[in-house]
Amino acid sequence: MKKTFLAFLLLAVLSCEKKVDKEPAISTDNLKRSNERTDTEQEAFSKEVALKKTNDELLQAIKVGYYDVFANYIHPQKGVRFSMYAFVNRNEDKHFSKADFEKYFPAKTVFTWGSRDGSGEIYKATIQQYFKDWIFKKDFTKSEYAFNKFLGGGNSLNNLKEVYPNTDFTENYISGSEKNGGMDWNVLRFVFEEFEGKYYVVAVINDEWTI
């Protein structure tokens, strides 16, 4: 009787060992495949989180007039371009290197930024005036946020992706009022490009309903 019990016990132990031996291989293989699937997704997620944080820092800095903070995000080689509307005009939109921006933002120098839609009036202002009266004409710290996606759009040609291919952008959108049929919406976009492991602003684009 004792021999029979020992034999039964031995068979049970061997059976358990076989089951244990098989499980790690399956589990490890699944884990490996899972890691391979998430590496790219994790990288994209990290970039999106980083640019959301940068977007919010830029909005806060512009709101309180800390233009030196904004200057630190200007692309070291390509500088930054300012577009009054969705259509980026390489020939007419105002462009600054980081050094020029830091030189002129505290000064009273008046620049030509473009022409107003509808009237065609030439818009002239200092850098500070442009930031206060045009870029931040509404409080974009209270806007709706999007990453690499357009929330606002009108009849103005939007050529961001053509002018800045292979870049990332953030969009800050404020919807229009019911009083004006929703047509008084406003958008502020930041276009980012990576340089030496860090993301910098290469363009600041405003957008709104145009005639």
Provide a descriptive summary of the structure in words:
The chain is of the alpha+beta class and 211 residues long. The protein has one domain: Nuclear Transport Factor 2, Chain: A (Roll), CATH 3.10.450. 42% of the residues lie in helices and 23% in strands. It has five helices and eight strands. The strands form two sheets. A six-stranded mixed β-sheet has the order 2-1-8-7-6-5. It has a two-stranded antiparallel sheet with strand order 3-4. The radius of gyration is 28 Å and the shape is globular. The relative contact order is 0.14. This is Lipoprotein. It comes from Chryseobacterium formosense.
Radius of gyration using CA atoms only: 28 Å
What is the number of domains? 1
Give the CATH topology: Nuclear Transport Factor 2, Chain: A
Q: Look at the structure and give the mean pLDDT.
A: 85
Poorly predicted ranges: 2-35
Number of helices: 5
- CATH architectural designation: Roll
Distance between the termini: 99 Å
User: What's the CATH first level?
Assistant: Alpha Beta
Main structural class: alpha+beta
Strand order of the largest sheet: 2-1-8-7-6-5
Binned strand content = 15-25%
Shape: globular
**How many strand segments?**
8
Organism: Chryseobacterium formosense
Protein name: Lipoprotein
